[in-house]
Amino acid sequence: LPRPASLTPRLPPPRSRAPRPSASSQVHTTDFPGNYPGYDDAWDQLRFEEGFRVDVVREEEDTLEFDMVGIDAAIANAFRRILLAEVPTMAVEKVFVYNNTSIVQDEILAHRLGLIPIRADPRLFEYRNQGDEEGTEIDTLQFQLKIKCSRNPQAAKESSDPNELYINHKVYSKHMTWVPLGNQPDLFPDAGFRPVHDDILIAQLRPGQEIDVLMHCVKGIGKDHAKFSPVATASYRLLPDITLLQPIEDEAAELLQKCFSPGVIEVQNIKGKKVARVANARLDTFSREVFRHESLKNLVRLARVRNHYIFSVESTGILPPDVLVSEAIKILMGKCQRFLNELDSVPME
Amino acid sequence: VQADGTDGNCVTFVLHDEDHTLGNSLRYMVMKNPDVEFCGYCITHPSESKINFRIQTRGSLPAIEPFRKGLNDLMGVCQHVLNTFEVRLFPEELKD
């Protein structure tokens, strides 16, 4: 779409809305200096700060839903990618198997142990140096899992319920105990490092089988292995923008209301006639059902507001989601700083 | 970081251990600079984590300047986002 080089400068869309169905036509941001004559698109920090805002919509223990308005896709996506892959956490990396007579193979057991989220603030620890096999107290957390299954002498003779017949036949994550290394008891007297959830089933045993392993947790990032990812998922979507091109009344209004998710379109009674109105476009999931009806197809324009991002961050419980977002932003700043430092230190030829 | 180019105005930086996360956001910030004629990045091979980041300037400005400015602007954006976010989330701490 050509930019309106017209009378009213800087008036809303087309450049702030990405229309559909021709979705592929305006996907990339085009407001770079020089693209549109008469508009000054050069980077202006003050203009950005005026237009930018963050609204927290919903904040629960493990989930955070917030809006970022006034930022570009490239940066919003950078935050999402960092949340998924580059915020560090602690997870089990090395498993020393002293005895494993259970049905679960060593490597499968080690894989499962690695995926268990550990409640340990990764900011208190350092990364392990490459090639360092032993692990020092500043970069390693040690856990022990030692459990043996035995027959329950008090069980009834004819019972077939494994819960009654056997003791310790299910190995849960609550059986993992922290073994402090070095001066860790002094550094973290009240920490009580343990898995986030106590009821993760690791393995099942029968009498006579036992598991005796020692685990080393290290700090890592999701890029290396997905077990280090601190979020269950982190995603964003753009705010929908639904415009009714003509007034829609009576049965068409009822039909329109059914085409969208509940709560999006509201039918009001104005002077005896039912008139449709867009109540809350945010709730829409964009099923595009409206385009299946010939009578409504051309009366509605479906688009998205290009710089309004609705983020949804769900944490695994290691760190609260608001801390995760702050850490992600700091990591992006750290990346820039790293290159700035290199630019200053290394002379360019 | 390695630089390689014909003269000071068009330079290709090779950034190691980086991917779209920094590449795309930095490209956006550098494109916002009116002195830049061309800015783009590409990932040479998906198995290697390095990007080729190319900047060409109009006129006589050495290409390293928009690169530095882009990094500084991106830092500024992140700082502002962080401040706004923390103000929004932890208003209790500010009352102290």
UniProtKB/TrEMBL annotation, chain A:
<dbReference type="GO" id="GO:0006351">
    <property type="term" value="P:DNA-templated transcription"/>
</dbReference>
<comment type="function">
    <text>DNA-dependent RNA polymerase catalyzes the transcription of DNA into RNA using the four ribonucleoside triphosphates as substrates. Common component of RNA polymerases I and III which synthesize ribosomal RNA precursors and short non-coding RNAs including 5S rRNA, snRNAs, tRNAs and miRNAs, respectively. POLR1C/RPAC1 is part of the polymerase core and may function as a clamp element that moves to open and close the cleft.</text>
</comment>
<keyword id="KW-0007">Acetylation</keyword>
<feature type="domain" description="DNA-directed RNA polymerase RpoA/D/Rpb3-type">
    <location>
        <begin position="63"/>
        <end position="342"/>
    </location>
</feature>
<keyword id="KW-0804">Transcription</keyword>
<dbReference type="GO" id="GO:0005736">
    <property type="term" value="C:RNA polymerase I complex"/>
</dbReference>
<dbReference type="GO" id="GO:0005666">
    <property type="term" value="C:RNA polymerase III complex"/>
</dbReference>
<dbReference type="GO" id="GO:0003677">
    <property type="term" value="F:DNA binding"/>
</dbReference>
<dbReference type="InterPro" id="IPR050518">
    <property type="entry name" value="Rpo3/RPB3_RNA_Pol_subunit"/>
</dbReference>
<keyword id="KW-0240">DNA-directed RNA polymerase</keyword>
<protein>
    <recommendedName>
        <fullName>DNA-directed RNA polymerases I and III subunit RPAC1</fullName>
    </recommendedName>
</protein>
<dbReference type="InterPro" id="IPR011262">
    <property type="entry name" value="DNA-dir_RNA_pol_insert"/>
</dbReference>
<dbReference type="InterPro" id="IPR001514">
    <property type="entry name" value="DNA-dir_RNA_pol_30-40kDasu_CS"/>
</dbReference>
<keyword id="KW-0963">Cytoplasm</keyword>
<dbReference type="InterPro" id="IPR011263">
    <property type="entry name" value="DNA-dir_RNA_pol_RpoA/D/Rpb3"/>
</dbReference>
<dbReference type="Pfam" id="PF01193">
    <property type="entry name" value="RNA_pol_L"/>
</dbReference>
<dbReference type="InterPro" id="IPR022842">
    <property type="entry name" value="RNAP_Rpo3/Rpb3/RPAC1"/>
</dbReference>
<dbReference type="Pfam" id="PF01000">
    <property type="entry name" value="RNA_pol_A_bac"/>
</dbReference>
<comment type="similarity">
    <text>Belongs to the archaeal Rpo3/eukaryotic RPB3 RNA polymerase subunit family.</text>
</comment>
<dbReference type="GO" id="GO:0005654">
    <property type="term" value="C:nucleoplasm"/>
</dbReference>
<dbReference type="InterPro" id="IPR036603">
    <property type="entry name" value="RBP11-like"/>
</dbReference>
<dbReference type="InterPro" id="IPR033901">
    <property type="entry name" value="RNAPI/III_AC40"/>
</dbReference>
TrEMBL record, chain B:
<dbReference type="GO" id="GO:0003677">
    <property type="term" value="F:DNA binding"/>
</dbReference>
<keyword id="KW-0804">Transcription</keyword>
<comment type="similarity">
    <text>Belongs to the archaeal Rpo11/eukaryotic RPB11/RPC19 RNA polymerase subunit family.</text>
</comment>
<dbReference type="GO" id="GO:0005736">
    <property type="term" value="C:RNA polymerase I complex"/>
</dbReference>
<keyword id="KW-0240">DNA-directed RNA polymerase</keyword>
<dbReference type="InterPro" id="IPR036603">
    <property type="entry name" value="RBP11-like"/>
</dbReference>
<dbReference type="GO" id="GO:0005666">
    <property type="term" value="C:RNA polymerase III complex"/>
</dbReference>
<protein>
    <recommendedName>
        <fullName>DNA-directed RNA polymerases I and III subunit RPAC2</fullName>
    </recommendedName>
</protein>
<feature type="domain" description="DNA-directed RNA polymerase RBP11-like dimerisation">
    <location>
        <begin position="10"/>
        <end position="83"/>
    </location>
</feature>
<dbReference type="InterPro" id="IPR009025">
    <property type="entry name" value="RBP11-like_dimer"/>
</dbReference>
<dbReference type="Pfam" id="PF13656">
    <property type="entry name" value="RNA_pol_L_2"/>
</dbReference>
<dbReference type="GO" id="GO:0006362">
    <property type="term" value="P:transcription elongation by RNA polymerase I"/>
</dbReference>
<dbReference type="InterPro" id="IPR008193">
    <property type="entry name" value="RNA_pol_Rpb11_13-16kDa_CS"/>
</dbReference>
<keyword id="KW-0539">Nucleus</keyword>
<dbReference type="GO" id="GO:0006383">
    <property type="term" value="P:transcription by RNA polymerase III"/>
</dbReference>
<dbReference type="GO" id="GO:0003899">
    <property type="term" value="F:DNA-directed RNA polymerase activity"/>
</dbReference>
<dbReference type="InterPro" id="IPR033898">
    <property type="entry name" value="RNAP_AC19"/>
</dbReference>
<dbReference type="InterPro" id="IPR022905">
    <property type="entry name" value="Rpo11-like"/>
</dbReference>
<dbReference type="GO" id="GO:0046983">
    <property type="term" value="F:protein dimerization activity"/>
</dbReference>
